[in-house]
Amino acid sequence: MELLINNQKKQFAQETLTIQALLDIESPQKQKGIAVAINNTVIPKTNWDSFLLNPSHQILIISATQGG
Q1: Which Gene3D superfamilies does the UniProt entry name for this protein (predicted)?
Q2: CA-to-CA dists, residue 59 to 21, 63, 66, angstroms
Q3: CB under 8 Å to 12, separation ≥6 — which residues?
Q4: What is the pLDDT of residue 2?
Q5: φ, ψ for residue 63 (rounded to 5)?
Q6: What angle do CA 25, 61, 50 make, to 5 degrees?
Q7: Cα dihedral sign for 51, 62, 37, 13?
């Protein structure tokens, strides 16, 4: 499956992926302080395990940073 993540096309061997499965692959070490938007809509973390991704989705993964 090909997905558009943060404006970059990425290829995955899996036929189906949830948001949580994607994050487990893309950033297994850092999953706190992350927000995920699909087609400009933020998806609550409680839905990450069940939200199925498809190639038409535009996925934005945002990490919180500190600074001032």
Answers
A1: 3.10.20.30
A2: 14, 13, 23
A3: 1, 2, 3, 22, 25
A4: 94
A5: -110, 135
A6: 65
A7: negative
pLDDT tens, N- to C-terminus, the chain (68 residues): 999 999 999 999 998 999 999 999 988 887 788 999 999 999 999 999 999 999 999 999 998 877 65
* CB crowding 31-65: b at 16 or more within 10 Å, else e: eeebebebeeeeeeeeebeebebeeebebbeeeee
Residue with tokens 């992350």: 34
Distance of CA 65 to the CA centre of its chain: 17
* Bridge pairing between strands 58-63 and 34-38: antiparallel
- The two tokens of residue 31 are 């999953």
